[in-house]
Amino acid sequence: MSAASVERHHGDRPLIAEAHRLMERNPGNRVEIIGGQILVSPSPGGPHADALTSLTVPFLAAGLHGPESRVLQEVGLWLPAGPEDYAIPDLAVVDADYRDSHVENSCYDPICFRLVLEVTSSNYQTDLRTKVAAYAGAKVPVYVIVDRKHQRLHVLTDAAENDYGSHRIHAPGELVTLPDSIGAKVTLDVAAILDAGQPKRTP
């Protein structure tokens, strides 16, 4: 998702309250708090949504939206880095009992997240840098990034303090099987996903 940082300059007003105000004033925008900063992302376009749907299909086909786990779009993930920090990944695989891990502000404890996934937009560095540290710090086991700008798919595993120990980059033409830790065998066709996310398809 594309995002712009909004520095805290609201006096004693909690960031959460300011985030809610921004959501009310900008319907359809995604508002997150990462590293004590509010990030506002405009509504994604059709190709972003197309890539996301193309990604969802193999997760559903593998049975991950069932009695043991659920496949969710834009669900809040509470981040341990700050008292008000949270992120909203494009897609997540969570434990089926995730409702028992509700924290607040429509966000859930990262312990129930098996995988998070982002499809990049104009400010791709948010997904490739800021959120890498955020999700690693939350100990999310698998982070997948569809990098539409550079036409790559990233799979990050082995979460450490603020980074992932393994960062594999895949190009069109590759079939990528995600780690078994998500609960089922899921293989992604890199070319098909990246093609779905392009503003104009090549003839």
Your description of this structure?
This protein has 203 residues and is of the alpha+beta class. The chain has one domain: tt1808, chain A (Alpha-Beta Complex). It is built from four helices and 14 strands. It has helices at residues 15-25, 46-61, 124-137, 190-196, and strands at 4-6, 30-34, 37-41, 69-73, 76-78, 86-87, 91-95, 107-108, 113-119, 142-147, 152-159, 164-170, 175-177, 187-189. The chain has a six-stranded mixed β-sheet, with helices on both faces. It is globular. The model is unreliable at 1-12 (pLDDT under 50).
Query: What's the helix-strand series?
Result: EHEEHEEEEEEHEEEEEH
- Gross morphology: globular
**Structural class given helices, strands, pairing?**
alpha+beta
Helix content: 10-25%
Number of strands: 14
Runs in which pLDDT lies below 50 for 5 or more consecutive residues are 1-12
What integer is the average pLDDT?
89
| CATH-defined topology | tt1808, chain A
Q: Can you list the strand order of the major beta sheet?
A: 4-7-9-10-11-12
Cα Rg: 16 Å
Name the CATH superfamily classification: tt1808, chain A
> Distance between the terminal alpha carbons, to the nearest Å?
27 Å
| Oligomerization status of the protein chains | single chain
Domain Putative restriction endonuclease: 19-190
Keywords: Endonuclease, Hydrolase, Nuclease
Pfam families: Uma2
Organism: Streptomyces sp. SID12501
Descriptive keywords:
4 helices, tt1808, chain A, 203 residues, 6-stranded mixed beta sheet, disordered N terminus, 14 strands, single chain, alpha+beta, 3-stranded antiparallel beta sheet
